[in-house]
Every structure is written in structure tokens, then in C-alpha cells.
């Protein structure tokens, strides 16, 4: 099979995905990189010596590419994805699709109008802990799902999200979108439905009071990240603008009657996700979210807290435990390449990606208002029909 020729837009902190996609002779190779930053271009030239590395997007699109990977900061996704779709190439757009719902819908509409294939990088759909939980749900081990709760302990949140553009709501909206869109998508996927109404509360409880600020825009995360920043109140070198919540709690009402909740905290001592799925015949819960962790199932009556009735170990991914997100990144890239080349089916969905953004945006709006229940804006039914039928239909 001829390698898929990939162009990359943005070679910053998510440049690891471009490196993962560079598999010369094995299905895909990076042949062009566009980034306006000189440092990023130098790093791209070192990573891909045979690639065209440019400061102009026009030169990228003229490099004979078959696909584009959009790995820019979130607020730039639409500006990069739409011209690539217009050029007729397949597009990998890192999640979230965009930070404004109008931009999300414009991206989907452009993909439908041009027939160009669109893939959104929701890598958690490939995480072994999630795929195993979904398999157990599909097998009916908890009966009919009625509730899904997710607690997200973001132990390194101060360093990961409050020292760069993520902390500035004009560029990220908030971490309920940038970070939580992962989990909202998974709640929808496990529940088999989408949120129709959402409400939330949240606060900037810790990091807003820290006045040690510094501009890290010329740096990479590994140049400022440290696990030694403890307690969170002692963190230094935050972004000059910090106006996003560091703790939030959201309630969700899905279109199939399932109730969901999502909690996110950026100053916990530990870093992992805990999902609880409650059905008419049992309950699932994961303890840890990496390969070797446990998924516990209770499906018999107990008078009090009890050991699980069954326990499942989270397996390593298809590519082993190596790579980002428990090897989910590698599996996601493999799926994207097959999809871009011949339209192979995917676990991800542009419709699901848009619905997760819509839920996150409305939940954030609720938090910043009075915490009331807000409707999730509907998507054009013709877009739903188009993407559900495959690309192009």
C-alpha cells in the first residue's frame, strides 16, 4: 500500500501525534509541516528531514499531500481545517473540533459539501479501560444503562493547564471544554445518547490567588512541568491570564433518559479518571485507568459495601502499553490512516465530537451564569444523516 502523504499544521505540544503518524513504508509519512513559529519549524526539520517545512499554509497544501493533521491550539482549528477540507484532502482535527459551536458546524458543513473526509482525534475511544467498559455494557452485564458518573482528578493541572494558553478563556473557553470534552464524549458513547440539557457549577478556587506569573509562550511544556510543585498553592510561573475554572461539576440529561455527571478538579494529589456506570442489573466502576488497572462489577444484592462480584484487568492496547494515553494515540493514528485511505469505519464520530463540544460550552455557560439548566443546541439533521451514513455518503 502506498503511504498516506500527511501535512501537519502546528508542531507544538501535540507534535507527538505527528511523530506517531510518521511510519514510512508502513502506511503513512509526514511530508510537509506548517508552523509560523521558527522554533517549531526547526524541530519539525529535525524530526522529518525529508519533509517540506514552511511558514506559509499555501505551501503546505501545495506539497502533494493526501491528508492534513490539525494540531494547533484549539482556537485555531477552524482556520486550519476548513481550507484543508476545501482543498479536497482528508483532515485529522485534534479535539475539541473548535471552541465555538458555529465553527464546529462550519467544519462539518464544509466536509459534507466538499466530500472530504473528516476525523476528530478523540483518542479516549481507543483507551483500553474505556473499550473494555463499553464491551461489558454492550454484553448486558449491568442491564440497561441509567446513569454514568465521571470523576476526573487532574493532579498535574497547575502545570499542564495553568501555565499557557489553556488558562486564558479567550483561547480555550475553559477546561470543561478543552479537557472535559474527552469525558463528555465518553459519557455519551457509553450511554448511547447525547446531552439535551446541562447545568453546572464551578470556581477558580486555587490558581486565581497565585500572583507569580510568567509568559511561557516560547517554551514547551516539558520545560516548565514538574511533579515537585506541591502543594498546588505553591505553584509558580502561571500564565499571565488565568480566568478559567480549576474545579467544576456538571449534570447532564441525555436524549435517551440516561443521567450523567462529570466532576473535574485540577488540584488533586492524584491523576486519573473514575467512571461509574449504573444499570438496571448492576454497576461498573474502574479503579485506575491504565493497563493493569481494575474494572469492578457488582451484579448481585449486597447489604453494604462489598467486594466486587467480578473483576477485570484493563489490558494493554493493540500496540502494547507504550505510547500516549495507554497506546490509544497509536491506535487512533492507525484508524485515521485507514479511514483517510479507503474510508474504513472508525470508533470516532464528527457528530459525537460536535455534541461533546456543545455540551461543554453550555455547561460552561451555566457555570458562569446562575448554574441553571440550559438546552444543548441542535445540529442540522442533514449533517447527522450524512455523517452517520459514512464519508462521503
UniProtKB/TrEMBL annotation:
<dbReference type="InterPro" id="IPR036291">
    <property type="entry name" value="NAD(P)-bd_dom_sf"/>
</dbReference>
<feature type="domain" description="Gfo/Idh/MocA-like oxidoreductase N-terminal">
    <location>
        <begin position="4"/>
        <end position="122"/>
    </location>
</feature>
<feature type="domain" description="GFO/IDH/MocA-like oxidoreductase">
    <location>
        <begin position="132"/>
        <end position="285"/>
    </location>
</feature>
<dbReference type="Pfam" id="PF01408">
    <property type="entry name" value="GFO_IDH_MocA"/>
</dbReference>
<dbReference type="InterPro" id="IPR051317">
    <property type="entry name" value="Gfo/Idh/MocA_oxidoreduct"/>
</dbReference>
<keyword id="KW-0520">NAD</keyword>
<dbReference type="InterPro" id="IPR055170">
    <property type="entry name" value="GFO_IDH_MocA-like_dom"/>
</dbReference>
<protein>
    <submittedName>
        <fullName>Gfo/Idh/MocA family protein</fullName>
    </submittedName>
</protein>
<dbReference type="Pfam" id="PF22725">
    <property type="entry name" value="GFO_IDH_MocA_C3"/>
</dbReference>
<dbReference type="InterPro" id="IPR000683">
    <property type="entry name" value="Gfo/Idh/MocA-like_OxRdtase_N"/>
</dbReference>
Amino acid at each position: 500500500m502506498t503511504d498516506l502523504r500527511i501535512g501537519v499544521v502546528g508542531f507544538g505540544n501535540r507534535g507527538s501525534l505527528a511523530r506517531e503518524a510518521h511510519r514510512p513504508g508502513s502506511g503513512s509519512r509526514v511530508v510537509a509541516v506548517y508552523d509560523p513559529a521558527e522554533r517549531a519549524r526547526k524541530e519539525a526539520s529535525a524530526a522529518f528531514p525529508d519533509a517540506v517545512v514552511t511558514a506559509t499554509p499555501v505551501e503546505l497544501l501545495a506539497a502533494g499531500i493526501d491528508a492534513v493533521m490539525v494540531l494547533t491550539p484549539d482556537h485555531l482549528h477552524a482556520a486550519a481545517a476548513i481550507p484543508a477540507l476545501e482543498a479536497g484532502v482528508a483532515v485529522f482535527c485534534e479535539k475539541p473540533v473548535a471552541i465555538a459551536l458555529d465553527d464546529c458546524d462550519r467544519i462539518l458543513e464544509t466536509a459534507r459539501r466538499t466530500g472530504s473526509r473528516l476525523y476528530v482525534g478523540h483518542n479516549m475511544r481507543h483507551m483500553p479501560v474505556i473499550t473494555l467498559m463499553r464491551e461489558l455494557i454492550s454484553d448486558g452485564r449491568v442491564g440497561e444503562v441509567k446513569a454514568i458518573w465521571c470523576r476526573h482528578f487532574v493532579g498535574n493541572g497547575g502545570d499542564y493547564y495553568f501555565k499557557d494558553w489553556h488558562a486564558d478563556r479567550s483561547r480555550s473557553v475553559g477546561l470543561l471544554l478543552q479537557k472535559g470534552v474527552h469525558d463528555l464524549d465518553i459519557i455519551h458513547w457509553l450511554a448511547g445518547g447525547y446531552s439535551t440539557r446541562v447545568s453546572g457549577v464551578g470556581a477558580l478556587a486555587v490558581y486565581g490567588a497565585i500572583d507569580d506569573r510568567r509568559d511561557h509562550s516560547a517554551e514547551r511544556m516539558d520545560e516548565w512541568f514538574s511533579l515537585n510543585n506541591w502543594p498546588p498553592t505553591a505553584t509558580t510561573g502561571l500564565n499571565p491570564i488565568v480566568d478559567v475554572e480549576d474545579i467544576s461539576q456538571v449534570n447532564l440529561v441525555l436524549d435517551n433518559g440516561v443521567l450523567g455527571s462529570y466532576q473535574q478538579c485540577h488540584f488533586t494529589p492524584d491523576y486519573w479518571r473514575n467512571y461509574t456506570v449504573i444499570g438496571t442489573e448492576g454497576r461498573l466502576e474502574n479503579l485506575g485507568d491504565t493497563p493493569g488497572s481494575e474494572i469492578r462489577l457488582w451484579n448481585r444484592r449486597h447489604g453494604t459495601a462489598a467486594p466486587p462480584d467480578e473483576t477485570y484487568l484493563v489490558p494493554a492496547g493493540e500496540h502494547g502499553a507504550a505510547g500516549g494515553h495507554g497506546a490509544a494515540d497509536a491506535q487512533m493514528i492507525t484508524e485515521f490512516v485507514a479511514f483517510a485511505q479507503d474510508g474504513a469505519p472508525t470508533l470516532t464520530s464528527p457528530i459525537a465530537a460536535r455534541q461533546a463540544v456543545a455540551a461543554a460550552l453550555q455547561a460552561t455557560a451555566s457555570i458562569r451564569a446562575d448554574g441553571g439548566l440550559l438546552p444543548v443546541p441542535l445540529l442540522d439533521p442533514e449533517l447527522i444523516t450524512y455523517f452517520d451514513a459514512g464519508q462521503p455518503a
